[in-house]
Every structure is written in structure tokens, then in C-alpha cells.
């Protein structure tokens, strides 16, 4: 089962439904993912399992990013040893910052994107025009309801400028938050259908001109944090009435000086969750 946001073939309006791989069944009375995430986990599950709205062939449905309305995307940093090592390398003058946060009780959390800026499967991501080195960061995303409960999982690409962040950690918002820096999708896998979120394979493949120029594989067993702890810190002093997506950190980082180029294709897969594919453009004008 996948929870999908899509364009209804009947009305042309955005809709939310359940995709079993053959057909999508709309959720009657639910028009946004945010509305669904406003429900307690038990009611959330009951609504998904009891979908009874109009039905559409899966192949004929155009998927949209599974975030909308007042939903926000946040991200956790330095949660895998590999990400700690990469950020130490790119930020030699501030290496201690990343060493300390890896082992600290409090995780690094940062705002990533408003829902309307998020790209979906088949969409575009961007390398900044004022940056020399930009990379995708493949991450397992937690889908959190308004109560902070983990009700699902999705795939997130936390696109980042290593050039900008490497100059000064205080530039992280500019390195992480811009149009084309966040992709989520293709759907939401219900949490009750994922047997163990700490044993999921994450793969990243980057192709250029039909050739693979970088690929790698890791596993969420390498995560240095508990997923429920990350969610709890996000909700500790904030509210998300339409829920949120929390990316849990990257474990696959291309070595320097690799960078994304215009025309590249980025494919991220998380086992049991889904595969997110996007194309790369360079600069703001190409994203408009």
C-alpha cells in the first residue's frame, strides 16, 4: 500500500488516495495529505485501510509530491558516521562542530522546505549557480502526523551546496534552503507495513549522458540516532497542525570534488519505501 497525492482524472483537482500497484482508490472526504496527517495514528490507519472513493488505474494517474498545504519538510544532520566525515572534510576550520553534534544528546535539526517548493518524482532539482560543488543527499523521510507520531515513510533528497556550507557552518541555510533543493516522493509507505525501519537499504545512482558517474549503497542500520527521538526533538517546542516530513540524514556522500551537473539524473531508492527519480538543472532561472 502506498498513500499518494495525485491529480484526479475525474476532476483535474488534487486528490489523496491509496495505491495498491494496480489501482488508486481516493480517500473520501480527505482532499490533502495535511488533512490526513491531522488525524491520530489509529484513525489515520483506519481511513487508509478503508478507502472507498473513486477508483483509477495506477498507470493513468499523475503523482504529485506527497506534501501540501501547511506541511513542512525538516531534516536532521550528521546522523551517520559518513555524513560526519564528509562535513568535517569540507569544513576544516569548523570541524569540531560536526564532531561534537554527532555524539551530542541533542540532534542537529533544520528547516528544509515549505510544501509548495518541494519537487516530486520525475521533477527537477537544482545545483546553485553560485556554488561549485553541489550533491544529492539520499535520506529516509519520516512522515509525522500532527501529534508527532511516525505514521509513514518516504524518500527525500536533501540537495546541498558543499561549497557554501564548507566556507562557514552559519551559511547552512543558504546551502540547504533554495528552490530545487528538496525532493520528496514518490509516495508515503504506511509505517505499519515497514517491518523494521532500521534495516532498510538506501541506494543512490547518478547518471550523466546515459552513463553512471556515481553510485553507492548504505543501510539505515548505520544510523546513529533513534527515529522516534528525532521526531520528539522536532515536536519538543513547535507545532505542525498538518504534519511534517523529517529527513533523517544522509549516509551516501560522493567524495570531493564530485558535483552535480545540468542534465544529470538522480535516482534514490529506499527498500520497502520507494524510488525517487529527478533531473538536475543549474540555477534559479531553470527552476522557474
From TrEMBL:
<dbReference type="GO" id="GO:0046872">
    <property type="term" value="F:metal ion binding"/>
</dbReference>
<comment type="similarity">
    <text>Belongs to the FAH family.</text>
</comment>
<feature type="domain" description="Fumarylacetoacetase-like C-terminal">
    <location>
        <begin position="104"/>
        <end position="281"/>
    </location>
</feature>
<keyword id="KW-0479">Metal-binding</keyword>
<dbReference type="GO" id="GO:0044281">
    <property type="term" value="P:small molecule metabolic process"/>
</dbReference>
<dbReference type="InterPro" id="IPR051121">
    <property type="entry name" value="FAH"/>
</dbReference>
<dbReference type="InterPro" id="IPR011234">
    <property type="entry name" value="Fumarylacetoacetase-like_C"/>
</dbReference>
<dbReference type="InterPro" id="IPR036663">
    <property type="entry name" value="Fumarylacetoacetase_C_sf"/>
</dbReference>
<protein>
    <submittedName>
        <fullName>Fumarylacetoacetate hydrolase</fullName>
    </submittedName>
</protein>
<dbReference type="GO" id="GO:0016787">
    <property type="term" value="F:hydrolase activity"/>
</dbReference>
<dbReference type="Pfam" id="PF01557">
    <property type="entry name" value="FAA_hydrolase"/>
</dbReference>
<keyword id="KW-0378">Hydrolase</keyword>
Amino acid at each position: 500500500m502506498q498513500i499518494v497525492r495525485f491529480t484526479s482524472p475525474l476532476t483535474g483537482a488534487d486528490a489523496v488516495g491509496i495505491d495498491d500497484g494496480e489501482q488508486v482508490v481516493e480517500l473520501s472526504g480527505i482532499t490533502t495529505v495535511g488533512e490526513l496527517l491531522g488525524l491520530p495514528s489509529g484513525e489515520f490507519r483506519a481511513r487508509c485501510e478503508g478507502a472507498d472513493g473513486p477508483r483509477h488505474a495506477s498507470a493513468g494517474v499523475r503523482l504529485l509530491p506527497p506534501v501540501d498545504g501547511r506541511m513542512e519538510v525538516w531534516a536532521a544532520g550528521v546522523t551517520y558516521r559518513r555524513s560526519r566525515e564528509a562535513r568535517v572534510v569540507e569544513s576544516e576550520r569548523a570541524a569540531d562542530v560536526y564532531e561534537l553534534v554527532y555524539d551530542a544528546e541533542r540532534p542537529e535539526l533544520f528547516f528544509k522546505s515549505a510544501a509548495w517548493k518541494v519537487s516530486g518524482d520525475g521533477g527537477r532539482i537544482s545545483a546553485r549557480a553560485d556554488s561549485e560543488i553541489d550533491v544529492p543527499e539520499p535520506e529516509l523521510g519520516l512522515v509525522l502526523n500532527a501529534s508527532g507520531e511516525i505514521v509513514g515513510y518516504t524518500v527525500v533528497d536533501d540537495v546541498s551546496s558543499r561549497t557554501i556550507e564548507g566556507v562557514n557552518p552559519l551559511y547552512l541555510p543558504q546551502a540547504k534552503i533554495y528552490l530545487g533543493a528538496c525532493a520528496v516522493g514518490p509516495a508515503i509507505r504506511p509505517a505499519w507495513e515497514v517491518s523494521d525501519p532500521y534495516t532498510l537499504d538506501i541506494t543512490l545512482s547518478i547518471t550523466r549522458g546515459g552513463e553512471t558517474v556515481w553510485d553507492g549503497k548504505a543501510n539505515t542500520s548505520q544510523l546513529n540516532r533513534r527515529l522516534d527521538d528525532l521526531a520528539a526533538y522536532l515536536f519538543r517546542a513547535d507545532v505542525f497542525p498538518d504534519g511534517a516530513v523529517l529527513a533523517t540524514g544522509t549516509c551516501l556522500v560522493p567524495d570531493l570534488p564530485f558535483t552535480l551537473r545540468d542534465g544529470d539524473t538522480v535516482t534514490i531508492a529506499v527498500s520497502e519505501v520507494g524510488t525517487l527519480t529527478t533531473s538536475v538543472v543549474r540555477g534559479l532561472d531553470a527552476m522557474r
